[in-house]
């Protein structure tokens, strides 16, 4: 073989060796995904979220470096990051009809960082309904005082509302809720409250669907006290007003009740409560021809128009004759004593009258039997 041919074969073998037996450079590998996984409740992209639901963020195989939730105006939602950095929860309720956006960062066990991002929107009610609760915080009330929740508009889903109401007492007390109208639900004990009971009420109404596109405007709470046990015994035939406190009679006042032979002027039978107290009350009754009559030390016990009040002008009838227009008349001195002793919510038990009060004037809770009361529950 010639030298030129030998060189050609040597060169060809080298090329084959390089192309057939050599190893290529390793291909570029994709970087590993971060191990940290961030999750949200409600989920990112969720719509029509109830603003009262729990709002949370969590991270698996990592911890949050920072996490924020802001509304469309850029205001941050208050929240609490767990000590281990693995979860965050809102500590205030969200608003209706808003968009909320997550931001922040988490670091995984592998040291890699992942963003906290996403958004959701809350439902926009057709309307919201305001509610109020009575008694108010730290009030001291009598042993017949009902708890009353009133709404600005009629409520359709009464059962849902009633389930959101809770009553806690310092001593066991049997009681129940009853709907007195589409706008009012009351709770009263089966019997009078035990004296000196502490009562706490919560109404979780915010975000609650009332039906018909309406939702609750706000939660309500109240904490109040039941005072001493004072009862007014008002037997119209005795011409006396008797006050019993903590089981003992503490007063017996000469009184004049409503005219016995005119049903329109009777002081009607029934158990009522002291609803309000006014040192001066201006009274009108066009049917019986008087207007702007000024009476003092007036304690209202019915929205039908009945009061316990001073009527010094009727002094000759006190303790002897029933001749009022339905109110309970006392002397000025006795009316002042009674007025000073009374609490809103004290029971007034009227008996011996020729007529009884129909259960239609606020407050009529105690004009219903316990069975009648329970039948008004929505659950």
Automatic annotation (TrEMBL):
Lineage: superkingdom: Bacteria
GO biological process terms on file: cell wall organization; peptidoglycan-protein cross-linking; regulation of cell shape
Pfam families: Big_10, YkuD
Annotated Gene Ontology cellular component terms: extracellular region
N-terminal signal peptide: 1-24
Gene3D superfamilies: 2.60.40.3710, 2.60.40.3780, L,D-transpeptidase catalytic domain-like
Keywords: Acyltransferase, Cell shape, Cell wall biogenesis/degradation, Lipoprotein, Peptidoglycan synthesis, Signal, Transferase
MF term (GO), any: acyltransferase activity
Pathway: Cell wall biogenesis; peptidoglycan biosynthesis
Residue ranges occupied by any L,D-TPase catalytic domain in the UniProt entry: 230-351
Catalytic residues (UniProt): 309 (proton donor/acceptor), 327 (nucleophile)
Entry-linked CDD domains: LDT_IgD_like_2 (cd13432), YkuD_like (cd16913)
Keyword Secreted set for record: no
InterPro entries in alphabetical order: Big_10, LD-transpeptidase, LD_TPept_cat_dom, Transpep_catalytic_dom
Protein name: Lipoprotein-anchoring transpeptidase ErfK/SrfK
Organism per entry: Saccharopolyspora kobensis
